[in-house]
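To assess whether ligand presence alters the predicted conformation, the chain was also submitted together with flavin-adenine dinucleotide. Input:
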Amino acid sequence: MEFQNELTKRGLYYPPDPGSMAVSTMGGNVAENAGGPRAFKYGVTRDYLLGLEVVLASGEVLRTGGKTLFTGCFTNYFAGDVGQAVVNVLKKLRLEIEIPAAEDCCGIAAILSGEGDLPLKNVQQNISTLSRARVDAVLVDCATCGAAFRKEYIDLLKRKGLDSTQAEILKGKTQDVMEYVAERIHELPLRKDYTSEKIRVTYHDPCHLVRAQGVSSAPRKILQALPQVEYVEMEEANACCGGGGTFQFDFPEIAKGITEKKIKRIRETGARVVATGCPGCRVTIGGNMDEQDRIAVLHPLQLLDGALTGKGLDKFPFAGTGRLC
Ligand SMILES: Cc1cc2nc3c(=O)[nH]c(=O)nc-3n(C[C@H](O)[C@H](O)[C@H](O)COP(=O)(O)OP(=O)(O)OC[C@H]3O[C@@H](n4cnc5c(N)ncnc54)[C@H](O)[C@@H]3O)c2cc1C
């Protein structure tokens, strides 16, 4: 009843109405899949459940339902190692995730290149797949796709005079996967023996995470929680890496100067690993480093996965070795 009252205040409506509503709890309603007379028209509790957090008898926490992982094109086609690390970490958090077959390229390359109506098919497909009522969170492992869902889709639809209501819903559901993990980092059994020595790590803030989505503390929280990591902040960590989507192809000389400054900042820290949550930044930074730098460019969850599985740092390639970053 308290729940119903609270929803009414917010102009919302929750259909299940067991006769015991005044005394029963949400936990009991879920366990019994309760319903009342309104079930004939609107269904029972099960029809309104997006997900559950279950504490098992062993004390373990299981999370199920409603969470979708959006794997961007970069993860799918170039950086399977990042995608695998993300899935490994989410599994360790006992999160059951869905990767919908109907998810499409986020279309941001076309959006930011001003390509007219070209991206609209992708935008509308993703909005309809990911804003469904049964999806309660869309976790994204690419800064750029996240920026598309939280900002660019809405801007694009408004520019075209189209309805952006569903895009706003998608925005509300979208979370960078690092935000989700950072909140739960204390639940993970981190190993100390994944590397024999302390690793100095720094973090580069991708524009699409820090400016478009306001995400900067979550990746740092993850990195600082890792055993054996000596976290050092670089100067101007949130300055662009020079990639800027297609900017680096349109203005290569200017982009090169920006990238050189970023690499100088990274070198100054003496870090062995530069972590970043954007695949584009990984390629721009890693592709412009020398093998002699002996610096690996990784997604923070790759390091975290290493600390969970014991995978040593020697398994990660250094930038400039010809392999992806
Ligand atoms: C007068 C009356 C009218 C009713 N009318 C209806 C009706 O119209 N429709 C209908 O479907 N049912 C009805 N019921 C049955 C009952 O109200 C429902 O099953 C209700 O969902 C039970 O909720 P509860 O909070 O009272 O749970 P409880 O009876 O306290 O518990 C039910 C089960 O759920 C488990 N449980 C409770 N909380 C949690 C939790 N947080 N996590 C895990 N497990 C939990 C308990 O261990 C127990 O096994 C009625 C019952 C009464 C007494």
